[in-house]
Recover the amino acids of this structure.
């Protein structure tokens, strides 16, 4: 039987990798939605945010269709690159990343929206490239908001259940994260005590994430007021 310590470590590993994986994409998408106007923007915005309103099991089903052993992309990854995603810890990462990405994108968009356009325009007047404008002005001024969004995405990844159980399954020692272990223990005779411990640990992690998110938002608001 997989120990609770291993379950916690796996959950933290999945949440950390998922958050780090979506951080550059989420930051770019948030900046894109905030600063650029282009054809199809609403469609892309809807596609990014649809996991927020879809049942997680539906998200997991679509991941299985595309990245599963018989999926469109899954077959290519397995036959050409030897990479298997479904029913591994990587599948748990993918599921957590997909459901967490919208939260990060929305936080980044709000953070970038708060950065004064005049500061960016002044840099452009001094012939700074768009690359320099982003990395020297936009990113530093919105950093606390972005970090707050990353913390929120981490918390969401840590608690992901529906998409994970469909795409990664519930394999002890391999894909069984905290939510999946709680589900398993509650369906076992005498497993309620073990489930209760993991529930308490989940509450602690969630609380710490919320506190960290609030602290970063406060710092972000102070920076915004000082601009």
């Amino acid at each position: 039987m997989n120990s609770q310590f291993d379950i916690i470590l796996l959950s933290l590993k999945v949440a950390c990798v998922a958050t780090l994986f979506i951080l550059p994409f989420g930051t770019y998408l948030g900046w894109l939605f905030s600063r650029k106007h282009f054809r199809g923007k609403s469609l892309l915005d809807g596609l990014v945010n649809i996991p927020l309103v879809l049942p997680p099991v539906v998200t997991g089903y679509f991941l299985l269709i595309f990245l599963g052993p018989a999926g469109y992309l899954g077959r290519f990854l397995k036959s050409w690159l030897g990479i298997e995603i479904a029913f591994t810890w990587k599948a748990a990462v993918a599921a957590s990343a997909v459901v967490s990405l919208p939260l990060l994108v929305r936080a980044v968009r709000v953070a970038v929206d708060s950065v004064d356009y005049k500061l960016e325009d002044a840099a452009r007047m001094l012939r700074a490239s768009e690359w320099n404008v982003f990395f020297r002005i936009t990113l530093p001024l919105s950093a606390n908001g972005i970090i707050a969004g990353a913390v929120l995405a981490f918390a969401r990844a840590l608690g992901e259940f529906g998409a994970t159980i469909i795409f990664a399954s519930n394999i002890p020692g391999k894909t069984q994260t905290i939510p999946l272990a709680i589900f398993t223990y509650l369906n076992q005779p005498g497993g309620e005590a073990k489930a209760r411990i993991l529930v308490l640990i989940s509450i602690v992690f969630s609380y710490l994430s919320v506190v960290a998110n609030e602290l970063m938002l406060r710092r972000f608001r102070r920076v915004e007021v000082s601009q």
Q: What stands out?
A: The radius of gyration is 20 Å.
